[in-house]
Amino acid sequence: MRTCDVLIVGGGPAGSSCAWALRDSGLSVLLLDKATFPRNKVCGGWITPFVPESLEIDLNDYARGRTLQPIREFRVGCIGQKEVPVAYDRTVSYGIRRSEFDEYLLRRCGAELHEGTSISKIEPARDGWIVNEQFRTRLLVGAGGHFCPVAFALGPRSAPENAVVAQEIEFEMDSQQAEACKIQAHAPELYFCRDAQGYGWCFRKENFLNIGLGRLDRHKLSAHVAEFAAVLRSSGRIGFDLPQRFPGHAYLLFGYSPRRIVDDNVILIGDSAGLAYSQSGEGIRTAVESGLLAGLVIQLARGQYSRDAMRLYSALLTERFGPKRGLLSAISGIVPRGLRNLAARQLLKTSSFCRRVVIDSWFLREHDTPLRLIPAVTQTQAVQSA
């Protein structure tokens, strides 16, 4: 039986970032994923500069042979009404393709990789876990996304889960489609639903086009997606028919997830822990940063992975991603839904709200600072003084 100190289940940005944070720790780290990379992963796929800075990614190196689309503008509105341009004099985000980005992070993470390995059995063992009757580990890290088997191994939820549900497609356009597409590569477009329960997006990454829609209310999701696609077609934003089937996925928002994210010898990161930003639904940055924070806590634990020791991770997540109520959420509890939705639609017609609240605060989170790994010799002092 293969033994290790840390076993990470899931090779996406959360799992790779955690492994990368542990690369010089002296711990033996194994990473399992059911897929063989590169693997297809449909995702809106844009990252703010915080992500490459936190992971010390050389963007010039990354861009060699991979998609890295600079973003300098957004177009924001409500579905069916005129959008508002929000332009910048600098690059504020980058478009990436998850098949490329995830493999890049995985190959450099420093862990022993076991690709094409599905999880069939997780059993508690003395001072750790046994996975697939093949791997024994002191600490099990769940990084397998919304349906992570490690998350389900922790047992029943404390409350029903209210997940965001989304459908999206990403494909490479042929020459005729590219000519008929009015979406500009440097300017993703965001269109909020009229009932303020979600939003749709159109994002061109070089010659790849990603279109999708996510909602808090899962009822009639396909109908909302079809309506959104029809509006894009009738408005001339996309001058060709889209594929009939949009693949679906789900995720939980931070502060709303009932999942228990730490226990004795186990910790959840990324979407398995339900960490997507509540205002935008973005999960890449929270996945990366939760992986880095987990790596910090694992090293500080010095082999003692009790529930009490792992609670530091929960505290750091709250400090980093804690609730910052936006204007819409602040007024939603004091006004009727109809008036709230009307107010939202009116606000989405104003350039100041679209820039300062929707883009700067919700999507770019420009009030934040980059999360950087702290050298091992100063980690304990930094946490004690936090």
Topology:
Elements: E1 2-9, H1 13-21, E2 29-33, E3 46-47, H2 50-54, H3 59-62, E4 69-71, E5 73-78, E6 84-87, E7 93-95, H4 98-107, E8 112-115, E9 122-125, E10 128-131, E11 135-142, H5 149-153, E12 164-172, H6 175-180, E13 189-192, E14 198-205, E15 208-215, H7 221-234, E16 248-251, E17 262-263, E18 266-268, H8 284-301, H9 307-321, H10 327-332, H11 337-347, H12 351-363, H13 379-385
Parallel strand pairs: 1-2, 1-11, 2-8, 5-13, 11-18
Antiparallel strand pairs: 3-7, 4-7, 5-6, 9-10, 10-11, 12-15, 12-16, 13-14, 14-15, 17-18
Helix pairs in contact: 1-4, 1-8, 8-9
Structural overview:
There is one protein chain. It is globular and about 60 Å long. Helices cover 32% and strands 23% of the residues. It contains 13 helices and 18 strands. Among the domains are: 2-45 and 97-158 and 252-323, FAD/NAD(P)-binding domain; 164-250, D-Amino Acid Oxidase, subunit A, domain 2 (D-Amino Acid Oxidase, Chain A, domain 2), CATH 3.30.9. The protein is of the alpha/beta class. Strands 1, 2, 8, 9, 10, 11, 17 and 18 form an eight-stranded mixed sheet that branches. The protein has a seven-stranded mixed sheet with strand order 6-5-13-14-15-12-16, sandwiched between helices. It has helices spanning 13-21, 50-54, 59-62, 98-107, 149-153, 175-180, 221-234, 284-301, 307-321, 327-332, 337-347, 351-363, 379-385; strands at 2-9, 29-33, 46-47, 69-71, 73-78, 84-87, 93-95, 112-115, 122-125, 128-131, 135-142, 164-172, 189-192, 198-205, 208-215, 248-251, 262-263, 266-268. 43% of the residues are buried. The longest helix has 18 residues, at 284-301. Residues 324-328, 330-334 and 376-386 have low confidence and may be disordered.
